[in-house]
Design a protein that fits this description.
Ammonium transporter fold, globular, 2 domains, single chain, 14 helices, 436 residues, mainly alpha
Length: 436
């Protein structure tokens, strides 16, 4: 171990950045949880929280090695399995163990993003199995391609903080999952409106706050590059917010709160691949331009049978793809990285598009295979009756909100042999709970 290479200021910043990115997953839980119906709020939030445990453990034991250990062009090696060789020695200017932790927060939130496409109908156990397998089979290899010295890194594709690795990747998986599971039983038959918009606003605020660690932390140092990424993370979503609200007003005469925070998230997604490669004025342009395709797709998707419930593919997948391409347009060597189209290197746009499309195709195919394999073992979605009751009670035996009418008592519905088949949900009056 050589502590002389470790810089205290860089270590301090990366400790803070790691905590900020970790906070994004609870923030995502509030964001998604507010956008669903109340009977599914806990289940939706749990889909984010469970990723903290399942993906976090798998990242430490296997995923980190597959992503960052020395290996081939497509996948890392086994040198760091079970944290082998991961200690307090310097990796760059920070301890290796801190680098593992920081990258682990990315793996966690990426897997959790997928849940927005399949809320209110996917069984919790099947979902956990999917994100566990996906984090190793899909996320870790793509991470290696771009950040671990893989083939996209060798070609020169730019992805500062995860436009391709995180957002295109998760958006593709979300699209496949929504298609495989099919729509919710009430989709297209009644309005499926958010039950708690203030929760969604709180979640978006936590996401924006955590995103400063996501982007500025990707400098891996307390450096001018971190400052650039930090400022761009402020400006791009601000521009996106203005454009989204403006389009809302022009189209419907109303500026919706859900629309405003969706614009913020799409702006954050769009600037992520470019955060340390473009100047502040370019960040404003990326934020303003990046929201337009996502806005159009969200409006169009609502008229189809595709039930990507919280528009993960349109917001994250499309936002990440557009941001990756715009990185190739606006990148400037003077700010970091290399020149893009506006700097006289149009080839960078092609490299960006190649990286995004390769990730899109791989994630689509691998995610479909994983879902089909899991479906051979356990059912992927709840039945219509369970959907009607709500997955909070069916999957967790809890309710997000109590009422004066009483709680819900779960009783075993026993067959002829006494074997419990599934919960029997009955309301419990206040007197039965000992209340006056």
């Amino acid at each position: 171990m050589d502590p002389s290479a470790i810089v205290a200021a860089d270590t301090a910043w990366m400790l803070v950045a790691s905590a900020l990115v970790l906070l994004m997953t609870p923030g995502l839980a509030f964001f998604y949880g507010g956008l669903v119906r109340s009977k599914n709020a806990l289940n939706t939030m749990m889909m984010s929280f469970v990723a903290l445990g399942v993906v976090g453990v798998l990242w430490a034991l296997v995923g980190y090695s597959l992503a960052f250990a020395a290996g081939g062009a497509w996948i890392g090696g086994s040198a760091h399995v079970a944290l082998s060789g991961v200690d307090l020695a310097a990796k760059g200017t920070i301890p290796h163990l801190l680098f593992l932790a920081y990258q682990g927060t990315f793996a966690i939130v990426t897997a959790a993003l997928i849940s927005g496409a399949i809320v209110e109908r996917m069984r919790f156990g099947a979902y956990v199995a999917f994100i566990a397998a996906w984090s190793l089979v899909v996320y870790a290899p793509v991470c290696h391609w771009v950040w671990g010295g893989g083939w996209l890194a060798s070609l020169g594709a730019l992805d500062y903080a995860g436009g391709t690795v995180v957002h295109v990747n998760a958006g593709a998986a979300a699209l496949v999952a929504a298609w495989v599971l099919g729509p919710r039983k009430d989709h297209g038959r009644q309005a499926l409106v958010p039950h708690n918009v203030p929760f969604a606003l709180l979640g978006a605020a936590l996401l924006w706050f955590g995103w400063f660690g996501f982007n500025a932390g990707s400098a891996l140092a307390a450096s001018p590059g971190a400052v650039l990424a930090f400022v761009n993370t402020l400006l791009a979503p601000a521009a996106a917010l203005v454009v989204w609200v403006g389009v809302d007003l022009a189209r419907s005469g109303r500026a919706t709160a859900v629309g405003a925070v969706t614009g913020v998230v799409v702006g954050l997604v769009a600037i992520t691949p470019a955060a340390g490669f473009v100047g502040p004025l370019s960040a404003l342009a990326i934020g303003a331009l990046g929201v337009l395709p996502s806005y159009w797709l969200i409006v169009r998707r609502a008229r189809t049978r595709l039930d990507d419930s919280l528009d993960v593919a349109a917001a994250h997948g499309t936002g990440g793809l557009v941001g990756a391409v715009l990185t190739g347009v606006f990148a400037q060597a003077a700010w970091g990285g290399v020149d893009g189209l506006l700097g006289g290197r149009p080839i960078q746009v092609g490299l960006q598009l190649l990286g995004a499309l390769a990730t899109l195709v791989y994630s689509l195919g691998a995610s479909w295979v994983l879902l089909r394999l899991i479906a051979l073992v356990v059912p992927l979605r709840a039945d219509r009756r369970q959907e009607g009751v709500g997955l909070d009670v069916v999957e967790h035996g809890e309710e997000a909100y109590g009422s004066d009418a009483g709680a819900i008592l779960l009783l075993p519905d026993e067959g002829p042999t006494g074997a419990s088949r599934e919960p029997n949900m009955r309301p419990v009056p206040s007197v039965a709970r000992g209340e006056a």
